């Protein structure tokens, strides 16, 4: 018995405003999931030579979450905002297949991760033998395991169909009440893809907690106890527990509603009661990148280094263009000064009084010129000089600085028929040169 798809099947069963809210939630989750998982994969690639075997499961989880993001979110967002499923039967089967494949793969990956952590901490004689190749084999097994359950409805063991709220697709829970074959698939799915993985994860982390507790007691009593966890193992376990809690918090409401629909009366369940848990289930793609990128020190440091490099790169690009316009900007800022007293205009100490000119109390010549244009603009704007043809000043200054450089400063004023201009030229010359040579 194949799945039945009618026109009414793909019409939304919830209100249009609720569909809009669901679509917006999917959109926000999709953006954050895409950015977070992509960043996590980038950081993993940057430190690929330093990855621990257990961290390969985190990478696989990011790949699975990213696959779900790319295949499910665009279809779910557009359909929710349109208040109906837009893509027909075949795309509905593809949507349901991807949802089951990536969801089971993520859960299987978390189960394997908890088992590896338990072996390393509770049974170090076996856990220390775990290598990268073992992790790769287990990851391949996780994808195979998920593929078997995802392909079964396509082979007519179980069925795919529209969700009860109408704008997404998954396992056809209604057929479970009508078809014994579909019922058997649903039972096996719940046992081997939810109850059993949950039991393994809870058991693994419970053993870890017991081992840690016994280790602390042994340390307090100054006796030889179980092997203590290293800092790296402690961080890995804490992050793994956090990811598992987030995953189960996201998927448990949907699992409960699905079991109620499969083994109870689906007609008594409001469509909105399916839509809200489905939104929470999709949010599971966010927790892994958020937890690892924010809480794992090595991943966080890699992001900080790359962000600092990017920030410096942007600054350097800006600073390359800035000196090109510096001279013209400086001339414009110092333009048009006139005075009435010729003696005050020819008085050179006035310019030398500028607090940003090099003095003996400054050890860094370049520091003295940091705010030079502003200072001289304030000084020269207060001068009262009668018009004259040319005023020339050459101040020969030499200071020993940390980078073995001296500075030649030339200040020239020239009057034209329209406006007066002041030109300041800064030249860096080797310290062994004298200004007589210049």
From TrEMBL:
<dbReference type="InterPro" id="IPR002962">
    <property type="entry name" value="Peropsin"/>
</dbReference>
<feature type="domain" description="G-protein coupled receptors family 1 profile">
    <location>
        <begin position="36"/>
        <end position="292"/>
    </location>
</feature>
<keyword id="KW-0716">Sensory transduction</keyword>
<dbReference type="GO" id="GO:0009881">
    <property type="term" value="F:photoreceptor activity"/>
</dbReference>
<dbReference type="GO" id="GO:0016020">
    <property type="term" value="C:membrane"/>
</dbReference>
<keyword id="KW-0472">Membrane</keyword>
<feature type="transmembrane region" description="Helical">
    <location>
        <begin position="274"/>
        <end position="295"/>
    </location>
</feature>
<feature type="transmembrane region" description="Helical">
    <location>
        <begin position="93"/>
        <end position="123"/>
    </location>
</feature>
<dbReference type="GO" id="GO:0004930">
    <property type="term" value="F:G protein-coupled receptor activity"/>
</dbReference>
<dbReference type="GO" id="GO:0007601">
    <property type="term" value="P:visual perception"/>
</dbReference>
<dbReference type="InterPro" id="IPR050125">
    <property type="entry name" value="GPCR_opsins"/>
</dbReference>
<keyword id="KW-1133">Transmembrane helix</keyword>
<dbReference type="Pfam" id="PF00001">
    <property type="entry name" value="7tm_1"/>
</dbReference>
<keyword id="KW-0325">Glycoprotein</keyword>
<keyword id="KW-0675">Receptor</keyword>
<keyword id="KW-0681">Retinal protein</keyword>
<feature type="transmembrane region" description="Helical">
    <location>
        <begin position="20"/>
        <end position="43"/>
    </location>
</feature>
<keyword id="KW-0157">Chromophore</keyword>
<dbReference type="GO" id="GO:0007602">
    <property type="term" value="P:phototransduction"/>
</dbReference>
<keyword id="KW-1015">Disulfide bond</keyword>
<feature type="transmembrane region" description="Helical">
    <location>
        <begin position="55"/>
        <end position="73"/>
    </location>
</feature>
<keyword id="KW-0297">G-protein coupled receptor</keyword>
<feature type="transmembrane region" description="Helical">
    <location>
        <begin position="239"/>
        <end position="262"/>
    </location>
</feature>
<keyword id="KW-0807">Transducer</keyword>
<feature type="transmembrane region" description="Helical">
    <location>
        <begin position="182"/>
        <end position="208"/>
    </location>
</feature>
<keyword id="KW-0600">Photoreceptor protein</keyword>
<protein>
    <recommendedName>
        <fullName>G-protein coupled receptors family 1 profile domain-containing protein</fullName>
    </recommendedName>
</protein>
<dbReference type="InterPro" id="IPR000276">
    <property type="entry name" value="GPCR_Rhodpsn"/>
</dbReference>
<keyword id="KW-0812">Transmembrane</keyword>
<dbReference type="InterPro" id="IPR027430">
    <property type="entry name" value="Retinal_BS"/>
</dbReference>
<feature type="transmembrane region" description="Helical">
    <location>
        <begin position="135"/>
        <end position="155"/>
    </location>
</feature>
<dbReference type="InterPro" id="IPR017452">
    <property type="entry name" value="GPCR_Rhodpsn_7TM"/>
</dbReference>
């Amino acid at each position: 018995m194949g799945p039945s798809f009618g026109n009414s099947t793909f019409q939304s069963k919830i209100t249009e405003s609720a569909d809009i809210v669901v679509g917006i939630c999917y959109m926000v989750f999709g953006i954050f999931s895409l950015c977070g998982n992509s960043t996590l994969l980038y950081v993993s690639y940057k430190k690929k030579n330093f990855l621990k075997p257990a961290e390969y499961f985190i990478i696989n989880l990011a790949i699975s979450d990213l696959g779900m993001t790319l295949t499910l979110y665009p279809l779910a967002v557009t359909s929710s905002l349109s208040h109906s499923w837009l893509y027909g039967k075949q795309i509905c089967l593809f949507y349901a297949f991807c949802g089951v494949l990536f969801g089971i793969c993520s859960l299987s990956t978390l189960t394997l991760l908890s088992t590896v952590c338990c072996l390393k901490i509770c049974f170090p004689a076996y856990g220390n033998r775990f290598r990268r190749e073992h992790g790769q084999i287990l990851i391949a097994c996780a994808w195979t395991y998920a593929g078997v359950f995802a392909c079964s409805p396509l082979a007519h063991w179980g069925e795919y169909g529209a969700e009860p709220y109408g704008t997404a697709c998954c396992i056809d829970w209604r057929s479970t009440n009508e078809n014994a074959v579909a019922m058997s698939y649903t039972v096996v799915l719940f046992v081997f893809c939810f109850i059993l993985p949950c039991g393994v994860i809870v058991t693994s982390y419970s053993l870890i907690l017991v081992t840690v507790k016994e280790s602390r007691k042994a340390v307090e009593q100054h006796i030889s106890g179980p092997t203590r966890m290293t800092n790296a193992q402690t961080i890995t376990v804490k992050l793994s527990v956090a990811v598992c809690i987030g995953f189960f918090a996201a998927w448990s409401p949907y699992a409960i509603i699905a079991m109620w629909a499969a083994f109870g009366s689906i007609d008594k369940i409001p469509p909105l009661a399916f839509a809200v848990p489905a939104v929470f289930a999709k949010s599971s793609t966010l927790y892994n990148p958020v937890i690892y990128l924010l809480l794992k020190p090595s991943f966080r440091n890699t992001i900080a280094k790359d962000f600092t490099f990017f920030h410096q790169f942007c600054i350097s690009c800006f600073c390359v263009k800035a000196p090109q316009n510096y001279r013209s900007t400086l001339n414009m800022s110092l333009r048009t000064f006139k005075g009435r007293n010729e003696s005050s205009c020819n008085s050179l100490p006035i310019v030398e009084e500028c607090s940003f000119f090099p003095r003996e109390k400054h050890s860094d010549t370049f520091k003295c010129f940091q705010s030079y244009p502003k200072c001289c603009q304030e000084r020269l704007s207060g001068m009262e000089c009668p018009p004259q043809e040319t005023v020339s000043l050459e101040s020969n200054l030499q200071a020993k600085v940390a980078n073995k450089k001296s500075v030649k400063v030339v200040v020239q004023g020239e009057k034209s028929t329209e406006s007066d201009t002041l030109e300041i030229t800064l030249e860096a010359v080797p310290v062994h040169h004298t200004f007589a040579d210049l």
